[in-house]
Structures are given as structure tokens and as C-alpha cells.
Amino acid sequence: MKKSNRILAMTAFAVISAGLFSCSSKRENHGYPYTPVPFTSVKVTDSFWGQRLAASRDVTIPLAFSKCDETGRYRNFEEAALQMASDTSLGFQVRGLPFDDTDVYKTIEGASYLLQTYPDAELEAYLDSIIAIVATAQEPDGYLYTARTRNPEHPHRWSGSERWAQIEDSHELYDLGHMIEGAVAHYRATGKRNFLEIAIRFADCVCREIGPGEDQQIRVPGHQIAEMALAKLYTLTGDRKYLDEAKFFIDMRGRGEKGMDSYRQSDVPVMEQKEAVGHAVRAEYWYSGIADIAALTGNKEYVEVIDRIWEDMVGTKLYLTGGVGALREGEAFGAPYQLPNLTSYCETCAAIGNVYTNHRMFLLHGDSKYYDVLERTLYNGVLSGISLDGGSFFYPNPLESDGRHARQAWFGCACCPSNICRFIPSVPGYVYAVKDNDLYVNLFMSNDVTVSLDAGDVALSMKTDYPWNGEIGLEVKDAPRRPFSLMVRIPGWVRNEVVPSDLYEYADGITPEFRVDVNGEAVNSELENGYLRISRKWKAGDTVHMSFEMLPRIVEANDKVEEDRGRVAFEKGPVVFCAEWPDNQGLNVREVVIEGRPELSCSHDESKLYGVDEIHVSEPGLVLIPYYAWNHRGSGDMAVWIRDEFLDK
Ligand code: FUB
Ligand code: ZN
Hints:
Elements: H1 3-10, E1 35-36, E2 42-44, H2 47-70, H3 73-84, H4 101-117, H5 121-136, H6 146-149, H7 167-170, H8 172-190, H9 194-209, H10 226-237, H11 240-251, H12 280-297, H13 300-316, H14 348-365, H15 368-382, E3 400-402, H16 415-423, E4 432-435, E5 438-441, E6 447-453, E7 456-464, E8 471-478, E9 484-489, E10 504-506, E11 514-518, E12 521-522, E13 527-528, E14 531-536, E15 543-548, E16 552-557, E17 567-572, E18 575-580, E19 593-594, E20 600-605, E21 612-617, E22 622-626, E23 637-639, E24 642-644
Parallel strand pairs: 5-9, 19-24
Antiparallel strand pairs: 1-4, 2-6, 3-23, 4-5, 6-7, 7-8, 8-15, 9-14, 10-16, 11-12, 11-15, 13-14, 16-17, 17-18, 17-24, 18-22, 18-23, 20-21, 21-22
Helix pairs in contact: 1-5, 2-4, 2-16, 3-5, 4-5, 4-8, 4-16, 8-9, 8-10, 10-11, 10-12, 11-12, 12-13, 12-14, 14-15
Bound molecules: beta-L-arabinofuranose and zinc ion.
């Protein structure tokens, strides 16, 4: 069905507007002590992120919708509906992957975020037309999984002969999770319940059939996400059964049909887990789900679990780019310090999951170290996953290439493009957070924001060229009568800490300077958990200026990382750099050796790669570009870790 027909189809579908519960997220209780300021309150005026948001709106999301159409993902729902209406088998072949439905849900989610920022009646009508098609595939009791409904006698080969029978392979609950995430986003953006009702009916079906009761089955998701999605549905609706079901999935992990298995993070019961293991996307969604349940139940034992796992991950399994999941085999975490570069898997979805996890860790603890990991992941491991124009994607994001790696417009397994669809438009939601009368400034991009604190509403305007320099201006546009605190994050890279562990360290003896002024006067106080607290009675016109000295830096890895031994990497601010073939003709960037103590200098080229800084390394005359911008000029050699004669023994 072409787009116009889909929109026409929608006219026959009743769209019920919000009524039962408010569209506003302000009063929802997510349980965390710190509350993010929703991206809808943050108007981005930034050139770096503005370009990314525009590419998402103009290229990425339209592309994903057209791929969903072209590859038969919409047709799957239509076939399921036809089969349900028929007394005999229509013999549809169930090919593709059993989670192809999720690409539709994830793209609707991304489009919904866009609608909140850029209202667009045509896009909204298109979403309604797609949701109408999804609705037709829902079985009468709420079950919605086209990989079975299209041909119940011969469902997808991973799916099992009856529903839930092979749930750890089938992705039935992964589909549910992404459906809820998409439906909640769509409801929040539009106030319409058409998608939300579908998700609630599927969630209710799952809650009825799976659980600890006598007439229920004990089943656990194979691929996590239902945990955090059900927590979100509970937060939205206040219906306790969704929280109970999410907690059940977490507590029962390892008791499903596959038993104990590290690939699925079920080798030991949740409360005994200590290490980041197994499939990295599952793992990150698992940690995020545990954090949500910790926050909503107040059970500190869950917090201890994810604290331990986070230490293991950041201490031994995190790439410099924030990427995670070293191994192609099982798309999985490797052993401690096993961080190969040429074969590093670092799936884009796992980097997105790492942002989710570290955001939740901040919301639990209020410590800037989680934002240090989040920011590193965002500017490097996530952004490399999408081309600058928004039209092609990496699935793995290696830190070295021999020319056999290129972004593509879509994949048979399209989890990464559709995840990017939903992630990029949500980025402004990571900039600020609040707690009582403390307003946390966590990321730096030009924006205008209005925030509600206990003291009243605050309006701020931020202006910066970050990540190209560390000069950040904040102006108070409106302030309440009562005092409040600005909590300004002083990033790890300013405090000479590459990551909050000894996995990497700066190796150049530099100590960057930083200064924060209020109305031209320096603020001198101790940092609290990595934040500079500025408490005062603010008034419109007050200014804050942050000046973080942002120099090109040299980084070494812990000696236990065999692959990085004898090599150094280069960074500037939060951005990791790499050497790529087009800038270094005549040099083999993978083998070239840095000699002596090189001089580093930096320049900005606005005409190159949508505007980038370059680092120039004097000996042997290397030119480095931001890692996220590689592979835009044809495939060839690339390296993040460069051999160094001092270390190369
Ligand atoms: O299994 C669903 C998704 O497909 C995973 O998150 C990705 O790693 C890919 O395997
Ligand atoms: Zn993926």
C-alpha cells in the first residue's frame, strides 16, 4: 500500500483522544530521585545537534518508513489480518526475522518524538495509517506477533508451535517491549490512544498468561526490553500489574525454558550477578530494566547489582568510544580487558543501550561519572552508527578498519537503523535534570529551556560551539523569587579522567584549566559528585560562563588491554579521533609509528565532513578526524589506536 492509500485507510479508523490519564509526564512517578527534563522542554538551537535532528527528520525517519514498506514489514501485519479472517490456511511464508515488527514500532517512536518538536499533520496522519494496519493484526485476546499469526501452523522457525513455547528465541516479548515504548511515545506526542490501546491489550494478554499464578506459565523474555517498557507503562497508567510483571521477569530470569545461560544474562540469579556478560544489547537493556525496577520498588539490592556490574563494565569492558560488546560471536561482551580493535563488534544498539543504562545510573545516584560515560558514548559510539546525512548506518562500529567496512541504508536485521530513528530525536532529553531545587546541567549544546523546580519555573538559554570548544554561556531568562542551585557538570575530560576507572588515562602530563563565572565573577567551590553547585537567588539577565580548556589529548589504555599495548589514541573534549586514509595519503594509518614526543595542534574545517576539528600530529605528520565522521569518503584504512615508538616494545 502506498503512503496516500495508507492515510486514506486511516479515515476509517477511529482515533480516540486522550481522556483517562493526562498526556503530561510531569506528574508521573518514575521512582528515580533525579528527574530528567523532557526533551519537549528543550528547544535545540545548536548547529552540531540541530543538523543531526534535521537529518533525522528529513532523511532517517522517512527512509526507515519507506524501508518498512519496501521490505514487507507492513505487509506482515496485513497478512496476519487476512489469515485471522480466513477459515483455512492462506499459506503465508513466514520469512525474515521474528522481530521485524519492531522496526515499525521503533520508527513510529522516533517519529513521535519528532512530532513533539516539529508538529507535522501529514506525518501524524501517516502514523495513524500505519497504526491502523498494526491494529488489524492483533488477535482478539490482545496477542500481536505477526511471525505466528500469519501462519499459525508454520510460524517463524524460532517461534515454537504455540505462543510462548520458545519465548527465549521467539522475541514475542521483545516485540511487546518495543511496541510499548513506541505506543507510549506516540501517546505522549499526540494525546491519541490508538497505538497505546493496542499495546495495553498485548500487555494485558501477557500479564494474564505469564506469571506465578496456577493458571499462568513461568516464562521470561529471551531478549530484554519488556522489563523497562512495562515499567514505563506502569509509570504512565499507574496500573500496578505492569510493574509486577516487569519485576517478575527480572526475578525469574534463568528459570525459563533455556535455563541458566550467560548469553542471556541468566547464568546466575539477578541478585548474584556481578559482571557484564553475554549479548551486549540484551545486557544493556537488562541493566536499564533493573534500574527502573530498583527505582520503582525502592529495593536497594537491585541497585547494588547494577552498581557492581557497572564497575565491571566501565573498569574492564568499555571501549574508548563508549562502545560495548567486543565479540562478533554472540554479539557479546568479551573477557575483562578483551577489547580487539579490528574486530570490535560494538553494535550501534549496544551503544544506545549504554546511554540508557548510564542515564538511569545518574538518575539513581546523581553522580557525574555516569554522564562521563554517557557523553563519551553519545559523541563516539552512537554517532558513528549513523552517517552525517542520516541516510546510512553501521551495525558494528570497529575501532580499526582494513577497508572492509561501510555504512548501509538498511540491513536484513535492521535493529540498528530503527534504534537510531528513535534515539537521535530524544537526545535533547539528556541535557538537564532536576532534583528539588537543584537544576543539573549535564550536556552542553545551544538550547532554550524552561524547567519547573520546587521554587518555581526557570527559563535558561545556553550558547556554545561544543564539542569544538569548551566555552559555554548560560543566560537566565526567567527565575522564580526563591533561590535555587545550578549544578554544572565538570566533565571527566576536564578533570583529567578519561573514564571513571583505570581502563584509560591521559598520557601527556597536561592538566586542563577550567573556570566558571557568574556575572563575571569566578565561582570557587568544591565539586559535589563532579558538579559545581551555584546557589543563589537568580534573576533574569544573570549569566554563567563555563570555560573548559579543550586541548588535543593523548590517551593510553591499561596495560592489560593487549590490543592497545604500544599504542596511543587522541581525543579532544568528549570526542575521540581517528586516522583515516583520505587525510593521510602515503601513510599506512594502521601501522604508522608516532616518533618522539609529537606536537599536537588543532584546526577547524567547516567545509569538511559537515564541519569538524582536525588534530595534526607533528611526527609523522598524521591528520586525525573525529571517529564518528569516518567512512564518508569511501572505505579504506582507519585506526583509533596508533603505534607509538615510546610504548611500542
Ligand atoms: O535480537 C534483536 C536484535 O537483533 C538484537 O538486539 C541485535 O543484537 C540483533 O541481534
Ligand atoms: Zn542493532
